[in-house]
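Hello Y.,

Per our agreement to keep a running log of every chain we model this quarter, I'm adding this entry. I've kept the format consistent with earlier entries: sequence first, then predicted structure.
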Amino acid sequence: MATQIAMGPWFVRDESMPYAPGCSFEIIKRKAQTGKLTAQSIIRGPSTHQFWMHADQVPGIAHLIGICHQCSCKVNPKERLCPECHAPFDSLEHRNELGLQYPNAESAHQARIQLEQLKNADHSDAVTTPSVQPQPTPTPSPVAAKPQPLPVTPASEAQPTVDSAISSLGPVASSVPLPDSTQLIPDSQQVHPQESDEPTRSIKTADLNKQAQHLSATVIVMIVCIVVLLALIVMLYLGSRKPGGVTGKEPIPRELGTTGALREETLPTVSEDAPAKPVDMPDPVGPMRLHQVINDARTLEQQGHSSEALAKLREYEQSLEDGKLEPDLKNEIQRLEKIIARKNAASFFGSSE
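Predicted structure for the entry above:
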């Protein structure tokens, strides 16, 4: 706190010194007089409530650079009032206070001394205060406990037996001290007016809140289960209406056992009078012969006879009955044609040189 008080409450934003500490009002005044503080400088302090503002709008600072903070007209820094709007320039009472609890070091020191004095006073009171001992309740004497004789009434004369019995037991009963009414009732059952039933009420309220929370949680779980169950029922109902079930796909014929026999309803029905359809079987000799021809052509190509290899493939192409070229044969012919054309071009340019 002492460091903050010593720094000062005024801050100037400067990109060259972004971490510059605060300064006092005298330093701000000196910067304004030397021209380091301009109208577009951004500052904050007690008069701005520590919000950033331009210097020409800060009360107590704007007149130092020759501008009124209220009407923005040019003024003399030595004047105390604005000649146009009559705004006061020296209205800052605590212009060097940062807004802390103690504005200067002296007030902070005095507060610390007062705190120590209060601590010492509390400690001395706790040591000198004697403990109060509870005084025992005096036991009533037999003389004080002796009952006074009651006046004779017609009702008492009507009960001679009871009176005679009481009179015969009078000396014995008078020698026994009567117990206090508070001693007959245990302390746990005595009613003290100072005690209140607020703890009992709070406990009952807490129990009711817990019961309500458990009940609400149970209701929420039941509602969620019912919603999920209804959703499953709706999905199963909608899936049963589709031809493909829940997935929406066509049913796949299942096999019966391990024999591989299909269900009878999935087998196609063919009439006995329908003629049998011819089945086109592929010629197993054709692919084998094509591969043999391609291998022979590649062997000739490796030996340097590309033209002979191409002629062999052309011969096989002409021998085909339907005139349909296989993809492998077509690709091989095109590849050999490119190789032969490249060789011819190379030989042509070589002979021209």
